[in-house]
């Protein structure tokens, strides 16, 4: 075989191999484009929707943690003191409501009886008040029966939204919430609503309490 024929044969094989390589390359490129178009959006969406690796801690969370620590410390101190004595001169159950407070005397109890009471009522918190006196506190997110019969919300003489024991004219303030922006209320609220507030809004349950408080919080004076 002379050199010319060998050269032509090699050139022919080269062109055939080049065409195959080009076809294979184009096929690989098409497959890659299809894969990217299908996989990448899901991947990007996953990254965008993924939760951050570390939760954002809020001030409220830290306050709750500190309050829990303080409660645990107070409970430990109470149990420690209770273990030192055998008989308690006076035991009182104190029900603390959102509005109002009631007490019930249980008389003299020994340590075991107090233990049993706290086990039966895990939300109660014990504390010592004075020598030989134990108070078992219960917090209730409601109005006391007395408060339901007598409570009003109105504005005190300093322009604060306040809770009153009885009609506002008796000036028996139970709790003060915040100062009201009177000019803003007068410009936006109907006259009937203002007159109702000045006369006193009767509060008979926790829903009315929260509703009135929420409504007038929009008019709380800033700063």
From TrEMBL:
Domain Bypass of forespore C C-terminal: start-end pairs: 142-217
Taxonomy, superkingdom: Bacteria
InterPro entries: BofC_C (IPR015050), BofC_C_sf (IPR038117)
Keyword vocabulary terms for this entry: Membrane, Transmembrane, Transmembrane helix
Keyword Transmembrane carried by entry: yes
Transmembrane segments: 21-40
UniProt signal peptide: none
Name of the protein described by the UniProt record: BofC C-terminal domain-containing protein
Naturally occurring in which organism (per UniProt): Paenibacillus chibensis
């Amino acid at each position: 075989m002379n050199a010319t024929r060998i050269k032509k044969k090699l050139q022919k094989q080269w062109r055939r191999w080049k065409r195959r390589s080009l076809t294979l390359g184009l096929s690989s490129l098409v497959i890659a484009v299809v894969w990217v178009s299908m996989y990448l959006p899901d991947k990007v969406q996953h990254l965008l929707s993924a939760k951050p690796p570390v939760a954002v801690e809020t001030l409220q969370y830290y306050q709750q943690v500190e309050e829990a620590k303080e409660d645990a410390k107070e409970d430990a101190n109470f149990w420690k003191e209770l273990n030192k004595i055998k008989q308690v001169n006076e035991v009182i159950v104190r029900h603390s409501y959102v509005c109002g407070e009631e007490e019930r005397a249980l008389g003299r109890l020994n340590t075991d009886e107090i233990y049993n009471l706290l086990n039966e009522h895990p939300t109660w918190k014990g504390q010592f008040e004075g020598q030989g006196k134990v108070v078992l506190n219960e917090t209730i997110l409601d109005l006391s029966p007395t408060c339901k019969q007598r409570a009003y919300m109105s504005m005190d003489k300093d322009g604060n939204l306040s809770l009153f024991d009885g009609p506002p004219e008796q000036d028996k303030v139970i709790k003060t919430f915040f100062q009201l922006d009177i000019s803003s209320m007068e410009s936006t609220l109907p006259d009937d609503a203002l007159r109702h507030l000045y006369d006193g809004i009767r509060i008979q349950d926790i829903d009315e309490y929260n509703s009135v408080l929420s409504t007038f919080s929009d008019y709380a004076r800033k700063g």
